[in-house]
Amino acid sequence: MTTLLIHAEQLGKTYRSGPGQELAALRGISFTVARSEFVAVMGPSGSGKSTLMNILGCLDVPSSGRYSLEGRDIGRMTGDQLAHLRNRYIGFVFQGFNLLPRMDLRDNVALPLLYAGIGRRERRRRAMAMLERVGLAGHAAHLPSQISGGQQQRVAIARALVTEPSLILADEPTGNLDTHTSGEIMGLLTGLNADQGITVVLVTHEPDIAHYARRLLRIVDGLIGFDGSVSEYFGEGATA
Amino acid sequence: MRATAIAGEALAAMGANRLRTFLTMLGMIIGVGAVILMLAIGQGAQAMVEDSIASMGANLFIVLSGSSTSGGQRMGFGSAPTLTLNDAQAMAELPEIQAVAPVTSNAAPLVYAGNNWSTQVNGTTPAYLEVRDWAVSGGAPFSAADVRSGARVLLLGQTVVNNLFGDEDPVGKTVRVKNSPFLVVGVLAAKGQSLDGRDQDDTVLVPVSTASRQLFGNQFPGMVRFIMVRAKSAEVMARAAVKLNDLLRQRHRIRDGQDDDFSVRDLTALAETAAGATRVMSMMLGAIASVSLVVGGIGIMNIMLVSVTERTREIGIRMAIGARRRDILLQFLLEAVLISLVGSLIGAAIGVAGAWAVARFAEMPVVVTLWSALLAFGVAAGVGIFFGYYPALKAADLRPIEALRFQ
Ligand SMILES: Nc1ncnc2c1ncn2[C@@H]1O[C@H](COP(=O)(O)OP(=O)(O)O)[C@@H](O)[C@H]1O
Ligand SMILES: [Mg+2]
């Protein structure tokens, strides 16, 4: 088992923005992420952060370059293999939570296990354990619309964790939350990283949030503008 | 395991939008119900016609007095009888012919113990029963000796028995026909309706000699109204028709170029035509009803397409957490198939109930066969798969990121 989890080489992504018009959202991004790292991704709006996250999460494919996850070349994989990766190795946390509105919280959390082929009883047991972990076991039978945004994001994290993935990708997970709730969510993610060694890559606009990470990746115009420690980036290196 | 879980997801989605699920089902309910009901009515009509044909007797000719057309004008049959008992005997000699029964008939009142019943009294020979494939259910038929002697004996049809005797056994009793006493020697087995809707059991058979000499007067001695002829098999029908014609022209001394003074009709062919017509009607009913099945299927496709568009984001989320293409395909396909299966189950129940109601209240014959139910059911499942496949494919072929971005 390699310690290298993510290996991105010259990733490029071009969108067709109109007839005959192309827009390069990523223009050659190379970096690696080792197991158990906690990386914050920052950058101006429209710089390509989400595009990068979607590629890392196997939701989208790069137009050029290579991406390997756990030593496996994503470019050579079939749709079903990618679905398998998303199911077992990656947990995605979205800014907008993306829970299924007509399903109660327990079933929302259990859903990835359904696609993993786990039996119903076991699905429910593990979903309840996850809800317990994010402090929402008492709300298992509620619908997403019946709880607050911060609680929904905790449910989304429980869902991301339920298949015990090695990588959590979070695209502005606190973007819709107030400062206090954001702190709770970040506490949860840092705990997972510290206690279980789960790798976390997280996009944020806020320096406060970025400070939970050790490493910072800054994207500017589809290129890497900075790759180093958070404290270095914020000019705090001397005081540490 | 995974497939059953996905079936659960499909069921949950159906349950989450009950009104829409029901409205989508309605197309299948109506379609399957209509197919089953229409097939039941069509097959009922067919069964009735086939019963009538079977009760008429097989390979049957009727030979009537008078030509079928005369100078473009129809002659009134029977007004001037031209057929004789001897004609009947001569016909029976033909090798193609199995049995021949001359018939002379008239309406007459019957009385028994204060009960009155007017019916058609047919004077004929014992061969009539063979020609018509008719059995006696009680007593025995009258004999050739009875015909020779002009005995006052009779066979009663079931309807006449019911009206004159009720539950009493008529065999051995004396009935007055036109005030003359007749001995009941037997009862005819029930036959039901004829093709033209007459009650075949409302009849009385007496020896032909007795009828013409004692009941209906002696206007044309030795003459009969019509002769019923049974050929030996279906294969010889055509040849038998020609031979009957030739024989009668010869016996009646009709020269070449002169019109027949009789007509030979193939009753079996006429009946087959009627049966063919009901078969066609039955198929048409089924075909028309099947159109509603297709319309129901298109309804499913319509709703499923809307549903896929509406749930694009949901599909994206499912894909993001690990649903494979075939998982999404299966979920939406199952949804369509379940809708059409449940719809057709309900439709089948309604169709059978409708058929029962038609039989009960409209007093029409209906036949619900297992195969018509299975057919409707199978077609419905097929329709569900066929019309559900395209929307399901559309859902499954969504790219995860595009589905997720969908607002
Ligand atoms: N599906 C798309 N089609 C066309 N252009 C897109 C699409 N997604 C993103 N873009 C463009 O690519 C660029 C990068 O977008 P994004 O990765 O979402 O940026 P960020 O997340 O850093 O704000 C933007 O200019 C955006 O408009
Ligand atoms: Mg973004």
Identify the strand order in the major beta sheet of chain A.
6-7-8-3-9-10
Which outline of chain B best applies? elongated
Reported by name, the CATH topology of chain A is Rossmann fold
Secondary-structure element series of chain A = EEEHEEHEHHHEHEHEEH
Number of domains of chain B: 2
Could you tell me how far the N terminus lies from the C terminus of chain B, measured between alpha carbons in angstroms?
A: 32 Å
Query: What is the overall silhouette of chain A?
Result: globular
Write out the strand line-up for the largest beta sheet of chain B, numbering strands in chain order. 3-4-9-6-8-7
Named at the architecture level, the CATH assignment of chain A is 3-Layer(aba) Sandwich
Features:
heterodimer; A: 240 residues; alpha/beta; Rossmann fold; 6-stranded mixed β-sheet; 4-stranded antiparallel β-sheet; 8 helices; 29% strand; B: 407 residues; 2 domains; two-stranded antiparallel ribbon; 13 helices; 12 strands; 18% strand; elongated; binds adenosine-5'-diphosphate; binds magnesium ion
Please sum up the structure shown.
Chain A has helices spanning 49-56, 79-88, 105-115, 120-133, 149-161, 179-196, 207-210, 230-233, and strands at residues 4-18, 21-34, 38-42, 64-69, 72-73, 90-93, 167-171, 199-203, 215-220, 223-229. Chain A has 240 residues and is of the alpha/beta class.
Structural commentary:
The complex is a heterodimer of chains A (240) and B (407). Chain A has 240 residues and is α/β, with parallel strands linked by helices. Chain A has helices spanning 49-56, 79-88, 105-115, 120-133, 149-161, 179-196, 207-210, 230-233; strands spanning 4-18, 21-34, 38-42, 64-69, 72-73, 90-93, 167-171, 199-203, 215-220, 223-229. Chain A has one domain: 3-Layer(aba) Sandwich (Rossmann fold). In chain A, the strands form 2 sheets. Chain A has a 6-stranded mixed beta sheet with strand order 6-7-8-3-9-10, sandwiched between helices. Chain A has a 4-stranded antiparallel beta sheet with strand order 2-1-4-5, with helices on one face. The radius of gyration of chain A is 18 Å and the shape is globular. The two termini of chain A are 33 Å apart. Chain B is α+β, with helices and mostly antiparallel strands. Chain B folds into 2 domains: 3-52 and 273-405, no CATH class; 81-260, no CATH class. Chain B has helices at residues 2-16, 18-56, 85-93, 127-131, 144-149, 158-165, 208-215, 237-251, 267-310, 312-320, 325-361, 370-396, 400-405; strands at residues 60-65, 83-84, 97-112, 115-124, 136-139, 153-156, 174-177, 180-188, 203-207, 223-224, 226-231, 262-266. The A-B interface holds A 54, 57, 59-60, 79-80, 83-84, 86-88, 92, 94, 98-100, 102-103, 111-112, 114-117, 119-120, 159, 163 and B 1-2, 5-6, 9, 12, 16, 313-314, 317-327, 399-401, 404. Magnesium ion is lined by residues 49-50 of chain A.
